[in-house]
Amino acid sequence: MGLQTTIANGKPQRNGANGGALRAFSYTQFRLLWLASLISMVSFFMVMIARGWLVLQLTNSPFMLTAVQGVSMLPMAVLPPFGGVIADRLNRKMILMVGEAVNLFALVLLTALLFADLLAVWHLFALSVLSGATFALAMPTRAATVPDLVGVAEAPSAVALFTTIFSTASLVGPFVAGYALKINPDQMGWAFLAATVLAAPALGLLARLRLPLQRSNGMPQASVVKSLAEGMAYVKASRLLIGLFMVGLVFALFGMPYMTLMPVFARDILHAGPEGLGQLAGVGGAGAIAGSLVVAVYSKPRQLQWLMIAGGLGFGLGVIAFAYSTLFALSLTLSLALGFLQQIFATTNFTLVNIAPPPHLRGRVMGIRFIVMGTGTLGMFLLGWLAEVIGPTRALAASGVLGVVLLVGVVVAFPALRRLTAELEAPTPSPVGGSQAPVVQAR
User: Fold this and answer.
1) Cα angle value 258/264/267 (rounded, 5°)
2) Which of 59, 73, 205, 408 has the largest CB neighbor count within 10 A?
């Protein structure tokens, strides 16, 4: 197929016309969304690290640590499809601003409770659920907006650059949180106050955002239930999307939860304290930045395919090695490698899911993808329970082994993952019969 012209931000673009891994930053609106999201995510990672240390100090329980972190992801198992419908129907700028405002409110309340010495563990559970709910409803909108701002031709590079938000935030946030926790070990409110102050400017940046109008497929707007059913039917008809969701499920259950046990390893195995915890998570963020940039450069479908598989397998093996490390320097090195491999896998999987569906279904498909991410809650509870029963080292190693075995099994069971380029070039499945033109071209 020949090159196609697309329109993004009012600028005509041709597929592959602009070279360079950073080409998406030439779009002003993309830069605004990127910066606002970066600020918000740095605050998010600060809260995640500070909250984990706070729970461990309050309860001295690995299970309670993973439980509090897990409930923050619980809404991801239910709400993302509704977030996808909202993203395809309502003003996306309004969705993003409301989500940011609710998250800021939760941070202010948590900080106030800490400084007033009124915080109880149940407050952490409740506020974690609230923050998780806003995240689950808003993230499909953020994801679906990226291709709209740059055009389909630049979508793979733009999505990869957008995921550098998470990797950059996971580098900066933990370092800042680790040092903020040292300001006054008896008053952890300072760490949450810093996260609150940092999150506030994101609202101002989002207010300046100008998003294009959503475009339908020309059909009358259906009910919410019918809209959800249409998205599910589309996914069900695509073996490629099912395969991508399945490898994402394995990662969510047996890969991603390793971060929730990091406070236990920092305090009880590596004896590194809160500063060491911040360093462990921070170098993982540095590796994640490198991983995002690699995907931004190698963004052709065939390259994404092999990066995803290699990243997933390497990550599982790295988790096993991290579980048995008792040297802080070695654990830092392994955390760097894990951040790199985790981001390689997550970015390629996220990018492929984002570019596969047609624009009018993208929000709903991404909503289903975030449900898969939400299953990480089950993995966190399982890992926390195993850590209580057999110890954190054996529990984490078992999780890594299961992740490797199941990932290999999914790749073998879904040939569409191995012929990914051809799948993306084929006519897209239609939930009502027939087919549509391909939405993504292999480059």
Assistant:
1) 140
2) 73
256 vs 315: CA distance, rounded Å = 10
Q: Which of 172, 157, 148, 140 is nearest to 373 (CA)?
A: 140
Q: Which two tokens stand for residue 26?
A: 């030439």
Q: Which amino acid appears at position 161 of this protein? A: L
Residue 408: what residue type? V
172: tokens are 């900066």
Q: Give the distance from CA 14 to its chain's centroid.
A: 29
Rounded distance between C-alpha atoms, residue 8 and residue 1, angstroms: 21
Q: State whether residue 5 is helix, strand or coil.
A: strand
Among 310, 275, 80, 55, CA closest to 180: 275
Say if residue 250 is exposed, middle or buried (CB neighbours under 10 Å; 0-12, 13-18, 19+).
buried
C-alpha distance from residue 406 to each of 45, 212, 249, 342, 353 (Å): 29, 41, 10, 16, 20
Interatomic CA distance for residues 321 and 118, integer angstroms: 40
**And the tokens for 248?**
């994402």
pTM of the shown model: 0.68
Measured distance CA(382)–CA(158) in Å, rounded: 35
Q: What φ, ψ does residue 375 adopt, rounded to 5°? A: -65, -10
The rounded distance, in Å, linking the Cα atoms of 74 and 420 is 31
The span from the CA of 314 to the CA of 317, in Å, is 5
Domains of the chain are: 23-213+224-436 (1.20.1250.20)
List pLDDT tens digits, range 38-97: 998 888 888 888 888 888 888 888 888 888 877 887 777 777 667 667 776 777 788 888
140/198 Cα distance (integer angstroms): 23
Location of structure tokens 């953020």: 142
Nearest one of 95, 268, 226, 114 to 180, comparing CA atoms: 114
Give the span between the Cα atoms of 181 and 170, in whole angstroms: 17
What's the pLDDT tens digit per position in 268-301?
999 988 888 888 888 888 888 888 788 878 877 7
Residue from 84, 78, 79, 54 nearest 68 by CA? 54
Among residues 301, 344, 364, 423, the alpha carbon closest in space to that of 167 is found at 344
